[in-house]
Automatic annotation (TrEMBL):
Record-linked Gene3D superfamilies: 3.40.630.30
Organism: Aquipseudomonas alcaligenes
Alphabetical list of PROSITE patterns matching this protein: GNAT
Organism taxonomic ancestry: Bacteria, Pseudomonadati, Pseudomonadota, Gammaproteobacteria, Pseudomonadales
SUPFAM superfamilies named among the record's database cross-references: Acyl-CoA N-acyltransferases (Nat)
Protein name, UniProt field: N-acetyltransferase domain-containing protein
Length: 171
């Protein structure tokens, strides 16, 4: 994949570069974002720098990782979307997040289906998953619109997480 991965009507997606740690921090240091991700705690600058390092390693290992999502009109990072491997041998897992000031604009619904289709075609993925908090109804709708099916749930700490799965076809 080139640095610019794809575009939609209002967004474009590009590879992460080392200096994007600033954008990771702007998004993932906000409690309203991280309440839906990982352990729910805002990330530190060092955490974000590690995420960038892991992303760059994933590009080398898998050809994909996390990507910056930019609003075309502003040419500014508004969020992130990508696939990660939480542990060796795990299925690729979809992750995405937008800065809160960009919530409610339909960006995830616009981006995620097209992004997944591009990754499936490019990398011949057979199956992938996404996890979402049971309270996060908006993301559940995005995943369903993207062809993902809720296949199970699991306890994570004090909360319940839903596992969505997509068996991939080459559309």
């Amino acid at each position: 994949m080139s640095d610019q991965v794809l575009s939609t009507e209002r967004l474009w997606v590009r590879r992460v570069i080392r200096s994007d740690v600033e954008w990771f921090y702007r998004v993932y240091s906000q409690p309203e974002v991280t309440r839906w991700a990982g352990d729910g705690k805002p990330l530190t600058w060092d955490d974000c720098a590690r995420w960038v390092d892991v992303t760059l390693e994933n590009y080398a290992k898998y050809g994909y990782g996390m990507f910056c999502v930019l609003e075309q009109e502003l040419d500014q990072v508004v969020g992130f979307c990508g696939l990660v491997h939480p542990e060796p041998g795990a299925l690729p897992e979809l992750k995405y997040a937008f800065a809160p000031e960009y919530w409610g604009r339909g960006y995830a619904s616009e981006l995620v289906p097209k992004f997944l289709s591009a990754l499936v075609r490019e990398f011949s993925l057979q199956k992938l998953i996404a996890t979402v908090a049971v309270e996060n109804k908006a993301s559940q709708r995005v995943l369903a619109k993207s062809g993902m099916i809720n296949v199970s749930s699991r306890a994570e700490g004090d909360s319940l997480t839903l596992v969505f799965e997509r068996s991939c076809t080459f559309d």
